[in-house]
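Continuing the series of single-chain predictions for the mutant panel. This is the parent chain; the variants come on the following pages.
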Amino acid sequence: MMLASLLEKPNRKIAGRKGNAHHSGFSHILKDFHDVNDVETLLQMNNEKRIKFFEPLKYVYDRKCIHTLSSYKFLKVPFAQYFKSFTVVALVPEHEDTHKNWATRYESAEGDMQDKISDKIKYLKKDLVYAQETNYHIKFDPINFFNFQHTQKLVTDICVHAKSDTIKIPYENWSQHVAKSRVFFESK
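Parent structure:
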């Protein structure tokens, strides 16, 4: 979400609409294309239904858009059958303590905190099995969003893979996002 909102406001090359639950200005173009229930439904669809499901993407103004998918299970979707050009970026935490930080961040955002953190860690570890798939083009540890050079390299790599003009992230915008988000990534 950080990358989507970071790119959305300063650079209109990335498609999006006003508002969503995260108040970032980023919005999903496809409904029912975000969480684990959505991927289960999508994987059960036949080819014809999937073509119809992805059809709204044909009408995106400049054919560039970002979709934030909340499960690594989306890596099982055969995107190459439905898109001639796409880039899959897997945000995969590499270190065990990052898992705890992710779970803590998620629960603090949801307001539940300690009693559910271990459940979130179990979910992440279970879901990470799908991240071992090689059905992505770029792998990135989300903690590296706090390093400007790593974040810019990620955006550059995405642009290169997508055969698009390189997008330069305005440093001020990046530092504002980092300042707002850092509290959710630090150990509690």
